[in-house]
Amino acid sequence: MSKLYLAYGSNLNYEQMARRCPTARPVCPSVLKGYRLVFRGEHGAAVANVEPCKGERVPVFLWEIEPKDEAALDRYEGFPFLYRKETIKVKLGRASVPAMAYIMNEGRPLALPGAYYYATIRQGYKDCGLDDAVLKAAAAFSAKEEEDER
Q: Which CATH number covers residue 83?
């Protein structure tokens, strides 16, 4: 049984998703309201996360995935140790629909991602027709917070 998957990081990248989840089908872009995109983890190896933040918005992309795609995503996302799964409502056309998202477990500091990982996400923004201003802001915010914590 298929389900909607909400991507906001490297899984926006069409080539990466085609390799990892060959039966996933692109649906459409959407917006996650009330969340902020950040990077958390080790300096130079942080990964994307979305966190509740009033007044913020994150461009996302919806994929229709099959159970074997979800199993592949679970492995990639380090479920349940690095990321947990949450169901989040997002707009699909005029309807508000539930979509599964990977949300990082607490305890990791804000930090900069690696260049390759960032470039993978940036290509995903292009693939999905998303404005990468939020991505650039997330990197700047995470870098500033990382610096402030030192």
A: 3.10.490.10
